[in-house]
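INFO  loader      accepted 1 record
INFO  loader      residues=489
INFO  predictor   begin
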Amino acid sequence: MEPALPMDSASACAVGSVHTVNPCGASSSDGSHDAVSPQLSAAKCHNTSEIDNGSRTPEETMAATNGGSQKPDDSADPAEMMPPTASLWLVLMLNLVAVTNLLIVIPTADDYSSRLGGGQMFSGLLVSLAPFFTVFGVIAQQSMLSCMSMRTAMFMLVFLSIIGNVLYALAGLTRSPWSLLVARAIIGFSAVMYGPLYISLTVGIKKRSRVMLMFSTCGSSAYSLAPLLAALLEWFLKEIRVENLVLDADTAPGWLLSIVYFVLLLLVFTIFQSPTMPDVSQGRRAHVVDNLKSLPIVALVVTWLVLLLVTLVQAMAEVYVTKLAEQYWGWSVGEAGMYMALVMAFVVPISIGASCVAQMIEDRKGIFIMCLLATISSWTFYDFGIEDEFGRAFLTGGGCVLVFGCASIARAFALALITKLVPPESKATLSTIAMATSALARGLGSLVGALMEPGFYALVSIGIFAVVLATVGLNYKQMSPIEEARKHR
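INFO  predictor   done
INFO  writer      dumping tokens
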């Protein structure tokens, strides 16, 4: 037998301390702990299948979900967290296109429906049907996230939007008004409404109001972009002398939006990164139930009412002013479209300016101030019997800018506040309710605006904002972010 080789003290210590290192930094067999750095340990944990996802917060679990997920910077303050720039801007652009798709038919709805045998009521239904189906779409979109990533869900919805717009463009060939309704139902159902949910999951509480105002600005821009595109398409087709069953001023919006959605389909597939939904696993259900019992119900109801009513006024204003220009002032579709595009273009810089100062104003204070200004501005819609065409258009347009701008900013503050009144694991549900509410209000507003007469609109608008003011004023103290939301984001 060969004699044992001598060992120095260092080697002996090394042999005596040998142990198996757990990739996640678990204790060794002799009770000592792994000395791997937290960053390396986290990286190794990510590559194992034995992770306890239920033990991590939403900020720590922004891990890979079906290929394209994002990881926030762990060293950053969660309250200051921001998502990948490309993904955020894609979400904003999807909101812009979705709202544009809902509104672009307003200038041509009367003509298209009358060509196919529909009346004024059918025209109002054609405009409002898509927002109504968006309510069901929002609920379905939330359910989709339980079995797939947000990127996969967005890809499917954008593809469905392409089909809906193609069907809308081909309705002239079918000569059936029902094909228009089917197409609009598909367009409404497939409208991507993940914006508030994505922002609430990926943007810290200190920056969320500003980003929500950016989101609202994109929606407000659609109110200018939609009539502008309708007017430009009509002018372009007249210039090139194209007028047939497949391509005319009525069907062109469908073809244009189909192309735009195809580009967005490619962008969703290539650049979008899905966030990870908050953990509501078995280990956290008791915590979720406790949080639900302590929710500020009154504040949530008031914020929901604000969101419902200000969105209702927005939709009413868009449809009513377009109808006013075409039916009472005798303007053409192109003239009414350009007028609305010009009016709504002034709303965009108002919303952008508000986003720059959003962090300096409390959400509840912003809602109250904006609704007060909107109440005063609604008097400009009153029928003063002005005979001069320019003076009449200027007064109505100026009032529309102020009312629409104030309503847009108030809506953005409400969207931000509603996610701050609940703990992180409840944000997905509240965001879904918020978007469903917005879609429902947009549908109701489009229908009411199509039926509204000049003698009543101003009083209705003033009454709605007065209700919002009174409700917010009476419950002002309760409309404050809960402590748990402050600590998380």
